[in-house]
Amino acid sequence: MPLFDIQLPNSVAKALRLPTNDLRWQQLRVLKKLLRKARFTEFGQHFKFDEILMSKHPGKKFQDMVPIYNYNRIYTEWWHKTLEGKPDICWPGKIKYYALSSGTSESSSKYIPITSDLLKGNRYVMIKQLLSLRNYHDIPIRSIGKGWLMIGGSTALQKGAGYYSGDLSGITAKKAPFWFQPFYKPGKKIAKEKDWEKKLEEIVEHAPHWDIGFVVGVPAWIQMCMEKIIERYQLNTIHDIWPDLDFFVHGGVSFEPYKKGFEKLLGKPITYIETYLASEGFIAYQDRQHATGMRLVTNEHIFHEFVPFDYKNFDDNGDLVANPETLMIHEVEEGKDYALLISTSAGTWRYLIGDTIKFTDKERCEIVITGRTKHFLSLVGEHLSVDNMNKAIQIVSNEMNVCIPEYTVVGKPHGTFFAHHWYVASDDAINAETLRVKIDEKLKEINDDYAVERNSALQQVFLDVLPEERFMEFMRLKGKIGGQHKFPRVLKGRMLEDWNKFLKGELI
């Protein structure tokens, strides 16, 4: 009998808390579990978690009594105390680990608390995702027992006053269970390396000695690694050295812009598995083959709320208005953009994570990431989302048969009106004017508001094509290489200032 046709015993299914169909019940159960665990913390006492638990409608009571937090607010009011070593602030005990997360637009690092309860919940979700491979057809089972190359942050964490901090990928690798160690590559020694270039060189050096079945990481950095291996050993494809490579587990950004360039490095088709693993928790994962979305984790360690991403709830800067509309899982609709609020087993309460999502299949609870609350363009009401941009790039690159792995867009004044300026990464021969016209036309088809404004206040669209290495060089200069770092699709604020300096040769 094939491995993935085996039915799980009830005891195993119960222990893994595999989901049932009642999403509202699942989420209320998770909320009550979180509230019970944290009711004696300072946060739980302040916001009367016991009273919420005794309510007939704990979900609604929770929303009424606990405010919405962004990072700055929750850090200023609560989390700063945990960094000072105080226990029982937002979650029982002392916080010993923090994931450093600067996102793609912030200049200073954010300290996101990581607890053993959160890591335990993340591990449960990882196991569920692995078990979900039984839903895939004709998968090469032999590859599952091969090496897993996970390219992330350094496991050599920074030591603070009673805590350690670093990339979540580094913390996760450092805390990986013993049974996973034989499969884990590049191994503990290389994983500790903080210098991304040195780490990459070590991986390339050891590549012939590994039999890799899975690669896991952000598409841009995995692609760079594979290109270096192919170049070093003068290979035709990565399968010349890793014939059993059959899976790529990716997340954090849309894979579509990278797919054409990525597949040039392959000798055979592989299975792509999308995940949504943020510093704050394991939020969703693809659990069936060829799915357009990822299954939202509803039955484990995260309570979700959803704020409609519109001008009733967000201002022009992407900041929440006072008293926004917030929905629970049973109240959402398919096809609408929502900003995600999460409460987790690390003392993250009603936290605006900054991502926007859309339900593609409410019954299956499947979502896609559509962008960031701060990463959209609406200078004059064009309401252009990252999802719109990704779709336009994907369609146009296919039409022109070119690879566009990176891009970013800037909104700026143009005379008395406004313009968008695209910067596109490609090493292919591209007519920039043709590309500009095609992207503009495609966005008019995708987004009605954009089409209207292109005939009004959005007077012009500019586009420059740059080598892919220029994008990577900028990320290196900003100290945002490897791990979970992604190039921002929309540039604003300090990142935009630095980008303009970089293009002039002034950023060193």
Model description:
GO terms for molecular function: acid-amino acid ligase activity. It comes from Limnovirga soli. Residues 297-361 form the GH3 middle domain. It holds the Pfam family GH3_M. By secondary structure, the protein is of the alpha/beta class. Helices cover 34% and strands 21% of the residues. The protein is built from 17 helices and 18 strands. The protein has helices at 10-16, 23-38, 42-46, 49-54, 58-65, 71-83, 116-131, 168-174, 188-191, 196-206, 219-232, 256-263, 386-400, 432-446, 448-454, 468-477, 493-503, and strands at residues 97-101, 110-114, 147-150, 158-159, 164-166, 184-185, 212-216, 247-251, 271-278, 281-285, 294-296, 302-308, 337-344, 351-361, 366-372, 406-414, 417-425, 458-466. The strands form 3 sheets. It has an 11-stranded mixed beta sheet. The protein has a 4-stranded mixed beta sheet with strand order 2-1-5-4. Strands 16-17-18 form a 3-stranded mixed beta sheet. Strand 1 and strand 2 form a beta hairpin. The relative contact order is 0.11.
